[in-house]
């Protein structure tokens, strides 16, 4: 990783960002082409660099996509978070509504999607806990699998 300026912010190249996030370089490039992930700095030679918050955003994008969020809504999520956080990922205290280049309808759609995802997550967490309890009762006793009596 390189630090091209004196602010001590660490920047990642495309390959470094991909490696840190556990994805391919092509994935980072594809997300950049789709404007899901935007470089924080471009050097005089045209090399794109990403700040620390880009790593978190990339990981979040991968999670949101895995949970079924459409690309346009994932892009809106990144736009919203970029408008309200700095390069390090700290929430900006000075942001206001005009800093967010999304229409109210887009923000409402995003909130609706997030609430639906959250509700589904809670249902699945409950289901997983029940399954775990059942499996624990069925197969864990004195440390050995109990006989199948069903």
TrEMBL record:
Keywords: DNA-binding. Gene3D superfamilies: 1.10.1660.10. Residues 11-80 form the HTH merR-type domain. The keyword Nucleotidyltransferase does not apply. This is MerR family transcriptional regulator. SUPFAM superfamilies: Putative DNA-binding domain. Pfam families: MerR_1.
């Amino acid at each position: 990783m390189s630090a091209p300026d004196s602010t001590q912010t660490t920047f990642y190249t495309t390959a470094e960002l991909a490696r840190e996030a556990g994805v391919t370089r092509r994935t980072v490039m594809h997300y950049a082409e789709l404007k899901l992930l935007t470089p924080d700095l471009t050097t005089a030679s045209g090399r794109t660099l990403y700040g620390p918050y880009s790593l978190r955003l990339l990981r979040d994008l991968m999670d949101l996509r895995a949970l079924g969020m459409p690309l346009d809504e994932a892009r809106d999520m990144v736009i919203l978070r970029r408008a309200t956080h700095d390069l390090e990922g700290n929430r900006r205290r000075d942001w206001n509504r005009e800093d967010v280049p999304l229409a109210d309808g887009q923000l409402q759609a995003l909130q609706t999607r997030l609430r639906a995802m959250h509700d589904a997550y809670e249902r699945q967490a409950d289901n997983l806990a029940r399954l775990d309890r059942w499996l624990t009762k069925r197969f864990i006793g004195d440390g050995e699998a109990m006989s199948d009596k069903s």
